[in-house]
Amino acid sequence: MKKSSAKRVNIVSVKLVRESSILYERRSIRSPQDAYDLFKSFLEDKDREHFIVVSLDTKNQPVSINICHIGSLNASIVSPREVMKSAILSSAASIMVAHNHPSGETTESREDVEVTKRLAEAGKLMGIELLDHIIIGDGKYTSLKEKGYI
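-> structure tokens emitted (150 positions)
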């Protein structure tokens, strides 16, 4: 019988890289309005859907913001694995997610509700609570927590 050659296995390290930073005067997020005020600068006036993840510490203070996915004009495919990656690396106690609707309307779609439920389930398994999913439009927002989906 022919002996197979050895398999080389890479030894790696995983790091979170800070690209820039912002000052958040409120220090902690206590309401969907607080979240909207933080998210809107990242999401308003975008021509495609952007999905972002904000990792929070135990006092609901944002520790990192990650643009998780940039989609098309009316769609963004979001994987729980990609959402949780930055949360894990940031040692997050909880997360909030948000995306924009380039149309300006903030009505949630069936896909928005489904991805919210999947992220909440994944978070429960990992011990990282999903606090809210905010949809941003033209000067307004919709909180899926306030709508009862979380």
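Strands lie at 50-56, 62-70, 94-100, 129-136, 141-143.
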